[in-house]
Amino acid sequence: MIKIWGKIMKNNKIVKDAVVTSNLDASYQDNLKACINELCNKFDIQKPYWLPTNLEEYNKRNKTIFNYHNFMEEIDFDRFVIEELDIEK
To answer: Which superkingdom heads the taxonomic lineage of this protein's source (predicted)?
Structure first.
């Protein structure tokens, strides 16, 4: 099971946030994709592209930040942040 906290940030303030979980009988990557898809649907935003820097940051800190470089369309926020939460806490 994976638990992800997603935040939409604008002017260094959280304008939307949600916590989602995925417990698919699948790989970690599939569960992570399911969480990101659910967050994007909740926030009504397009799905971001993972750049090499996002992958590196997520692998190191279980957190990454998507900005305008990660989206094809124009966005009306500064950042979309995802962070894996520790399920044990």
So the answer is: Bacteria
pTM listed for this prediction: 0.91
State pLDDT tens for residues 3-28: 999 999 999 999 999 999 999 899 99
3-state secondary structure the chain: CEEEEEEEEECCEEEEEEEEEECCCCCHHHHHHHHHHHHHHHHCCCCCCCCHHHHHHHHHHCEEEECHHHCCCCCCCCEEEEEECCCCC
Q: Which two tokens stand for residue 31?
A: 């569960």
Residue carrying structure tokens 């002017």: 11
Cβ–Cβ < 8 Å for 78, 10: yes
From the number of C-beta atoms within 10 Å of its C-beta (0-12, 13-18, 19+), residue 76 rates as exposed
